[in-house]
Amino acid sequence: MKRAAQFAFGLRNIFALSLEALLFVLAISQMSAAQAPPPITSDATKSGSAAASFAGCYQVQLGRWWPWSFGEDTVFVTPPNRIRLLTQRGTEGFEDNGFIIRVLPPEKQAVHGIRRVWSYWTVKSTKDVDLVWTDGLTGVVLKLHKRGNDLRGSAHPHFDFPTFIPRTAHVKARKMPCEQPENTQLPHNGL
């Protein structure tokens, strides 16, 4: 009788542990499902209508990096001085994450050594936009807010290694007239 009681007690413990493990797995899967990003199509529809208000040509002024500069790496995190935000969605590389940015005047494809640099922009709200230049390892994101026709905000660099002290710079992008119609094919560009 004692063995039967021990056996029953052991089965009950195994069942309880299995039930706890199952509940844990279900809880984790529900939490990760709740954290999943929304589908790209919903962002595309939402941002497509707001993109027209940001589209156009801009003169970009980057302030001093704070708390200190990057030295030789500055080239990897400095955006072009004159850009055009197109309402055309990107289709190549990282550009498929948003709308296309092109350098003015049109230049050859920008590269860092042998790596290509992609540039794209995304609408965050009716007043906020992010401009991104990246080669997949390094680059910069300009987080900008609309003030009249101009965009103002900050630059945030990213690298393929950890940085313990984040750096930032003030950015101003002044809207300017575009010299060519938007449907003109402009070459790829970047940093």
Quick synopsis:
The protein has helices at 2-34, 40-54; strands at residues 56-62, 82-89, 99-103, 111-112, 115-116, 118-123, 128-134, 139-147, 150-158, 169-176. It is α+β, with helices and mostly antiparallel strands. The strands form 2 sheets. Strands 1-2-3-6-7-8-9-10 form an 8-stranded antiparallel barrel.
Lay out the secondary structure.
Blueprint: H1 2-34, H2 40-54, E1 56-62, E2 82-89, E3 99-103, E4 111-112, E5 115-116, E6 118-123, E7 128-134, E8 139-147, E9 150-158, E10 169-176
Antiparallel strand pairs: 1-2, 1-10, 2-3, 3-6, 4-5, 6-7, 7-8, 8-9, 9-10
Outline the structure in words.
The protein is α+β, with helices and mostly antiparallel strands and 191 residues long. It has 2 domains: 1-36; 49-176. Helices cover 25% and strands 33% of the residues. The protein contains 2 helices and 10 strands, in the order H-H-E-E-E-E-E-E-E-E-E-E. Strands 1-2-3-6-7-8-9-10 form an 8-stranded antiparallel β-barrel. Strands 4-5 form a two-stranded antiparallel sheet. The longest helix has 33 residues, at 2-34. The protein is globular and about 90 Å long. Mean pLDDT is 78; it is low at 21-42.
